[in-house]
Amino acid sequence: MFSDQRANLTSNVGFQSTLSIDSKDIVGAEKAYNPFEHRQVEHPNSTFGSILHLLKACLGSGILAMPAAFKNSGLVVGVIGTLFAGLICTHTVHLVVKTSQDICVIAKKPSMGFAETCGAAFTYGPKRVRPWGEFVKTLIDYSMTLTYISVLCVYIVFIASSFKGVMDVYLPHYDISVRMYCVMALIPLILICQIRNLKYLVPFSAIANILIIIVFGVTMYYTFVDLPPLSEREAVASVTQWPLFLSTVIFAMEGIGVVMPVENEMAKPEHFLGCPGVLNVSMFIVITLYGVVGFFGYLQFGDAVQGSVTLNLPQDQWIAQGAKLLMALVIYFSYALQFYVPMEMIKRLLQKRSSNKFGNLIQVMIRTVLVIITVACAVAFPNLELVISLVGAIFFSTLGLLLPAVINTVYLWDKDLGRFNYVVIKNGIIVIISIIALVSGSYVSIVGMIEDFSGHENHNSTLT
């Protein structure tokens, strides 16, 4: 669910909303508005290019966490669970895109973003919920910002863990904690996050794309060499660990923030849904790769597998250690790209100020403080596996599963809920799954974090 390219796509604000209640009803004799015919995209993406965009969005650093997810499920449950989670995520993305396209016809808008679609579902839904439209849109805007900030925290822990893994091999006398490496990353992160124009980050993104291919190749080589027999690994892990599996898979696979920008910029958006369609083809590849990496990564490294499988690469081979450092560099560059997304919303808020005095200084301070906050959170909870699980449980299960089911139900409530109200039943099941992932995943992750934090405190008190 999360990629190092999301910031590039989500930063495109697309078409601004001018929804109004007055345009809700379409005159029967009037020809239905076709939003696809009114889209004016300067550089539209081809169908194949759109598939590549979705693949880049979903096949980022999250795929490296899949072996750790399988550790919490077992081989059999992991395969079934990955397929199940993939189908659910694909369907919820379909709900968002279909709802957005239907509302565009009524609102006579060429396209809408994710937050705009959520708000419009209420605005064009039942009369009693229409006044909530703007509030929902604003709420989703803030939620997306918090989601990306939480992803930044994961990135910092990833960078720190990768550097510690290498430094512990070549400088064993310096026993520096992951928390200290998080602090050491503060100044470099502050500096790169002062870059305000996205075009200046393009070279960093290009370098990151090349490096992640190298890292992925090296990781897969060590993953498939001398695989142990299946009997050495659990087929079904303890049920109490399944929430960690589910929330990690959702975190890795869910790309709800990038879907609408990709669909909005297609030359032939009618090819996004349907069979085969851009969405189905992309998610088939994603689900397959996630299942393969998770299965064989856990088979190779077993219960010793860490939050990112790159951390399990051999310590006595420089190529493996180099891959760890390259991955840390990839995440460092990706941090700046992801940082661009929450800053876009903050910049919109700053533009509402009546005076631009000290605007440059305010920007520098906000960027610096935001980086400090993410580093502080990473220092407090440096367990990569638990942080990934918590972020997936809280943010991506909500934005990627719960909200699509809710907005689709609200929009169709007084229109067409299908035979026997199957839309309500189906979406209700998705809501229940998302709540289970939210509550159970958050609980298990938080309990693990508390135990981890308490253990660190006890260790410090013993040393003193």
TrEMBL record:
Which InterPro entries does this chain map to? AA_transpt_TM
Name where it mostly resides: membrane
The keyword Manganese appears for this protein: no
Keywords of the record: Membrane, Transmembrane, Transmembrane helix
| Pfam families in the record | Aa_trans (PF01490)
| Membrane-spanning ranges | 48-69, 75-97, 145-164, 176-193, 200-222, 242-260, 272-298, 318-337, 358-381, 387-407, 428-450
Q: Output the superkingdom of the source species.
A: Eukaryota
Q: Name one GO cellular component term.
A: vacuolar membrane
Q: How does it sit in the membrane?
A: Multi-pass membrane protein
Q: Where in the cell is it found?
A: Membrane
What GO MF annotations does this protein's record show?
A: L-amino acid transmembrane transporter activity
Report the residue ranges that make up the Amino acid transporter transmembrane domain in this protein.
45-446
Q: What is this protein called?
A: Amino acid transporter transmembrane domain-containing protein
